[in-house]
C-alpha cells in the first residue's frame, strides 16, 4: 500500500530541473568563440585595409579551422572524462573486493555526513554489501562525485561545438558577402555581431541561471574589446 502511494505521488509530481547542461555548455563554448574570434579577425583585417573578398576568404578559412580545432578539443575532453571514469571504476571495484570493510566504513562515513545516525545507516550499509553493483555505483557517485558518462558524449560534444562555432562564426562575416567596401562592411559587422552577442549572452544567462541582462552586456563587452584590440593592433602594425 505504501509503495503504491509513493508511486502515485511520483507520477503526479513532475520535476522541472534543467537537464541539458552538457549540450548547453558545448553550445556556449562554440557560439561564444565563433562570434568572437572571426569577428576580431575580420575587424583586424579591416583595420589593415584589406578588401571584403580577402576578409571573407580569411574569415571562412578561420571558421573552418576553428570548428575543427574546437570540435576536436571537445572530443578529447569528453573522451578524457570517460577514460578517467573507467579508471576510477576499475579501482573502486578492486577496493570493494580487496578491502570490503574499509569501503563499508567509507559508506557509513558518507551517510553520517548527511546527519544519518548509526542505527539508521547500518541497514543501508549492510544492504549495499549484499549488492556489489549498487555498492559500486554508490561509491562512484557519493565518494568520488563521478557520474557515468554517456558513451556517445565525445562525438556529440565534438559535433555540437563545431556546428555552434560555424553558426557563430558566420555572423560577423555576413556583411562582407554583400558589402564590397571593407570599411562599410566592418561597421555593419560590428552592429550585427554585437546584436548577436547581446542575444546570445541573454540566452546564456537564462539557461545557466545567471542574470540574463548582465550576461548579455558582459558577453557583448568581451566581443567589443576583442574586436577593438584586433582593429587597433592592425592599425599600429600598418602605420
UniProtKB/TrEMBL annotation:
It catalyses: Fe(2+)(in) = Fe(2+)(out). It is a multi-pass membrane protein. GO terms for cellular component: vacuolar membrane. The chain crosses the membrane at residues 53-78, 158-179, 185-203, 215-234. InterPro entries: Ccc1_fam (IPR008217). GO terms for molecular function: iron ion sequestering activity; iron ion transmembrane transporter activity; metal ion binding. Keywords: Ion transport, Iron, Iron transport, Membrane, Metal-binding, Transmembrane, Transmembrane helix, Transport, Vacuole. It comes from the Eukaryota. It is found in: Vacuole membrane. The keyword Transmembrane applies. The keyword Iron applies. It holds the Pfam family VIT1. CDD domains: CCC1. Homodimer. Vacuolar Fe(2+) uptake transporter. The cytoplasmic metal binding domain (MBD) is located between transmembrane 2 (TM2) and transmembrane 3 (TM3). Belongs to the CCC1 family. This is Vacuolar iron transporter.
Amino acid at each position: 500500500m505504501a509503495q503504491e502511494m509513493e508511486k502515485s505521488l511520483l507520477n503526479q509530481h513532475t520535476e522541472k530541473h534543467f537537464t541539458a547542461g552538457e549540450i548547453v555548455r558545448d553550445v556556449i563554448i562554440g557560439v561564444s568563440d565563433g562570434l568572437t574570434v572571426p569577428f576580431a579577425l575580420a575587424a583586424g583585417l579591416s583595420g589593415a585595409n584589406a578588401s571584403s573578398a580577402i576578409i571573407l576568404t580569411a574569415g571562412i578559412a578561420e571558421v573552418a579551422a576553428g570548428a575543427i580545432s574546437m570540435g576536436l578539443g571537445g572530443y578529447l575532453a569528453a573522451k578524457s572524462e570517460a577514460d578517467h571514469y573507467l579508471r576510477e571504476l576499475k579501482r573502486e571495484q578492486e577496493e570493494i573486493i580487496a578491502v570490503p570493510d574499509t569501503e563499508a566504513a567509507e559508506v557509513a562515513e558518507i551517510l553520517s555526513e548527511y546527519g544519518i545516525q548509526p542505527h539508521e545507516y547500518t541497514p543501508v550499509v549492510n544492504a549495499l554489501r549484499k549488492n556489489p553493483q549498487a555498492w559500486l555505483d554508490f561509491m562512484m557517485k557519493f565518494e568520488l562525485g563521478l557520474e557515468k558518462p554517456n558513451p556517445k558524449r565525445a562525438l556529440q560534444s565534438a559535433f555540437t561545438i563545431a556546428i555552434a562555432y560555424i553558426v557563430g562564426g558566420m555572423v560577423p562575416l555576413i556583411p562582407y558577402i554583400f558589402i564590397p567596401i571593407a570599411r562599410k562592411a566592418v561597421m555593419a559587422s560590428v552592429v550585427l555581431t554585437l546584436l548577436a552577442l547581446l542575444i546570445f549572452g541573454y540566452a546564456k544567462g537564462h539557461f545557466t541561471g545567471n542574470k540574463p541582462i548582465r550576461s548579455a552586456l558582459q558577453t557583448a563587452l568581451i566581443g567589443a574589446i576583442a574586436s577593438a584590440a584586433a582593429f587597433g593592433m592592425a592599425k599600429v602594425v600598418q602605420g
